[in-house]
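Let us work through a complete example step by step.
Step 1: write down the sequence.
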Amino acid sequence: MERAVVHLHVPDFCAVLEGLRDPSRARRPLVVADPGGRAVILALNPLARREGIREGMPCAVALRRCRALQVVPPDRAFYRHAHETLLRDLGAFSPLVEGGALGRYFVDLSGTRRLWGPATDTACRMEEHFLHRHRLATRAGLAGNKLVSQVAAECVGVGDVSWVFPGGERTFLHGLSVEALPGVGAKTAGRLMDFNIRKVGDLAALSPGELLPVFGGHAPRLLRLARGEDDLPVVPFEKEATLRLVRDLERDEIDRDRIEALLFDLTEEGGWILRRRNRIPGRVLVEVRYADGVEVQVARDVKPMGQVLDRLLFETVRDCARSVIRRRVAVRRIAVTWSRFRVPLRQLALFPEAGWAEGRERRIQAALDAVRRRYGRQAVFWGVTICGHAGEGA
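Step 2: predict the structure and record it as tokens.
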């Protein structure tokens, strides 16, 4: 059966939603940015883009460039609710709907021809549904996989559908700039241009051995992107219970010890909540926002344990943080999200010495919790978090 994957993209999703919520905002340049003097642009509408404003630009610079600029604080709960509503609507066309990023949706229409007709007609019907029901203009790409459909959607204007015929993926990508490939940012594109590789076709013509000395283990992935090869499935959206803790730093921080102290404090707060709810997490997601607005994240499975123990949880959180915080840019926000919960089930160790270390941690954790239940969570804390508490007069 021939695959047919549609990618729908709502340009400037967050800024457009703000304009729909308050129509008076849509008539002037608008940006979405956190409050404060260090804020950077997170989203903007087309009028602001015409003034030369871009994502990641400091808000102070944008205000000097456009005096009529409206700055709106982000309402992330509102954006997420609208995003999930669109996902549910797309579920009427196919059970395989994926929406990992706000305003971007993949729909697998394979095998739906007898129900909806040709995939191109279905893509147009989806665009009409977004426009008439939600007043959201979209662009759509249709291809045999997620990668090519995403690139195809960026090659047309709002309201149009770009269809890449099966077998024509390499031909379609051949003349595009390497920056058109998802996951190829300015840094990777710059390194490719150093070798006079500017078009996707130039990159696809190389062999893994020619790219390996420059890009190492990333060389095979780059070649698959350039050749339009993508076998990733469309993963349906499933809402699961999560515990998300966010810490906005009082000042941009680049000191690794202080960042890890803040992460330990977040881990302790999460552990305290999970123990009270009698749940053990199976996965943790660490998100970092830099001072220039760039956001990165990494997720890891949490090793099995019979009880939530803060110091054992922190080992996983610290590994995530060290793998994600690699840029020489100060950190502005840190978020830790726990998911895949289960009820604690303690199993005795086969050999006593095997469970000694965890038993010691369990006794320490029980003693700390007893003190905090009586005197409050801030009554006692680990020395590793002293940097995080220094600003509180501890």
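Step 3: interpret the result. The first helix runs from residue 13 to 21.
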